[in-house]
Amino acid sequence: MEEMRIINTVNEISAVLLGTSVEDFDQNLFTSMGRLGESLKMDRVYIWHNHMVGDELYCTQIHEWSGNAEPQQGNELTVSVPFPADWYPNLSADLCINGVVTSFPEYEREHLQAQGIVSILVVPIFLYNEFWGFMGFDDCQKERIFTDAEEAILRTAGLLFGHAWVRNETTLDLVKAKEEALASAKAKTDFLANMSHEIRTPINAIMGMAEIARKSEDKERVEECLERIKTASQQLLSIINDVLDMSKITAGKMTLSHKPFKLREVIQNLEDIVAAQVAEKNQTFDIRFYGEFAPVLIGDEVRLTQVLLNLLANAVKFTGEGGAIGLTIEVSERQEGREKYQFVVADNGIGINADRIDVLFSEFEQEDQSTSREYGGTGLGLSISKGIAAEMNGQIEVESEQGKGSRFTVTVWLETGAEEQMDKPEKEPELEKTASYDFSGKRALLVEDMEINRQIVTAMLTGYGLEIEIAVNGQEAVEKMAAAPERYDLIFMDLQMPVMDGYEATKRIRQGDSRQSRQIPIIAMTANAFAEDAKRCLEAGMNSHIAKPIDFEKLLLTIAQYL
């Protein structure tokens, strides 16, 4: 009868919590915990949620009902508490803590008795197959031990309360997100419309050229179509990379490299790239260095180039025929081991309306929507550049007057290095004619779950003598290597696959008994294209990383390197 009464109480509470609104949730949760506590004749009922502090797992009490006991919510005994030695192993293994406090180890006993607890039951809460937290029940009056049946019922109650809390938090997040979305609805709508245009334009070119090539019998015309398809594909990839860069910056996941480079070489490369764009519009391009600076610097050469190239490309784009573009470089501050560099990109182009300067660096806005219609672009470049500058402990500032031009000033901190830190460039094998490659007698295992990707790689390598066998997931690759490790000379490994991903498959292959399993070249061939993805591949035991869409020349060079 006692257990049936508790079950009925849990059922009633379930109906209340499932039907409660966000506005009434806290009160209904408190009332429900109280009803359960009174039904059990307990003095305190509470919910704790797990969280990380550094690399350690802690827990904090997030809700409490107290009857005939002093409330503990918010004090040092219930906020960011490390798990007692036995609690985490037991609770994470889906076991309960159930007993009289005087029988507990000293540390646990002191912590619990400080809260006036005589007997306690703690039931773990698992949400989405993860140990989320726990629900506890205190008797501060007498010694008691809960029965197995009561434990089972209260496990269900803990799961109910945990789900209710998560559902409410998710609803609050959605409400907040909706309000924020509504507040910037027009900007985001304009941004998406512009993004749709930018993406559809190269896709239209790809589809159109493919159709023309399909119907044409003129070889030169087909090759022209294929070249335009390649150009449009590169444009589409650039747009996608901008979006991914922005998402990484927003999520705080952008990482910068820390390598020596020569600033004069960076500027020379920029000049070579921009020169062709400037020449098309009959513009002048002037570069000036002021003062002395270190011949070797340490930082992320690629990201610095990305920022400056974006500003210079914008200057060219928004400056008319015969206009002037300028880039100046100087050291504005020196400290031991590092220097603060100032890059100024100036033009005499269309300029920016003063009341629109503040939105320039927003990822969802451009200076004016007519700008995107007339000049194109996603509008993400300045947002990305600002994020990169911030990662380099710097910033971007802008001065502009409509009709008279703009002046963007980028400041970044870079460490100073020495000539001996520069890596001596290794001479890459020359790629004179791809047809000269011959991989006859060699066999590769292609691990890829997407049929079209398997077809692309196979078609790319047809004619070079390399025999290709297929595994549709990591598990199949592991089994093939275990059955005949000497059969394969090379493995192409996708990363995201069903059954077993490429990381795990590589680790298991490397753990094989044969020498070939430990030594066979494994090349990641994946759409996971960021530097951290390549690093993770190497850590998993792969030898190299090729990003999709696949650069055919790089693919051949990589195969040649290992075969």
Provide a descriptive summary of the structure in words.
The chain has 17 helices and 18 strands. By secondary structure, the chain is α/β, with parallel strands linked by helices. It has four domains: 179 residues, 2-Layer Sandwich (Beta-Lactamase), CATH 3.30.450.40; 65 residues, Signal transduction histidine kinase, dimerisation/phosphotransfer (DHp) domain (Helix Hairpins, Orthogonal Bundle); 163 residues, Histidine kinase-like ATPase, C-terminal domain (Heat Shock Protein 90, 2-Layer Sandwich), CATH 3.30.565; 128 residues, 3-Layer(aba) Sandwich (Rossmann fold), CATH 3.40.50. β12 and β13 form a beta hairpin. α1 runs parallel beside α5. The longest helix has 36 residues. It is globular, with a radius of gyration of 32 Å. About 4% of the residues have low confidence.
Shape: globular
Using only C-alpha atoms, the radius of gyration works out to 32 Å
Number of domains: 4
CATH fold category name of the largest domain: Beta-Lactamase
Number of helices: 17
GO molecular function: ATP binding
Keywords: ATP-binding, Kinase, Nucleotide-binding, Phosphoprotein, Transferase, Two-component regulatory system
Protein name: Stage 0 sporulation protein A homolog
Domain Histidine kinase: 194-416
Topology:
Elements: H1 2-19, H2 25-40, E1 44-53, E2 56-66, E3 81-82, H3 87-92, E4 97-100, H4 106-113, E5 119-127, E6 130-139, H5 148-183, H6 185-215, H7 219-250, E7 259-261, H8 263-280, E8 284-290, E9 297-299, H9 301-317, E10 324-335, E11 338-347, H10 369-375, H11 381-391, E12 395-401, E13 405-416, E14 443-447, H12 451-461, E15 467-471, H13 474-483, E16 490-493, H14 502-510, H15 515-519, E17 522-526, H16 531-540, E18 544-547, H17 552-562
Enzyme class: transferase
GO molecular function: ATP binding
Catalytic activity: ATP + protein L-histidine = ADP + protein N-phospho-L-histidine
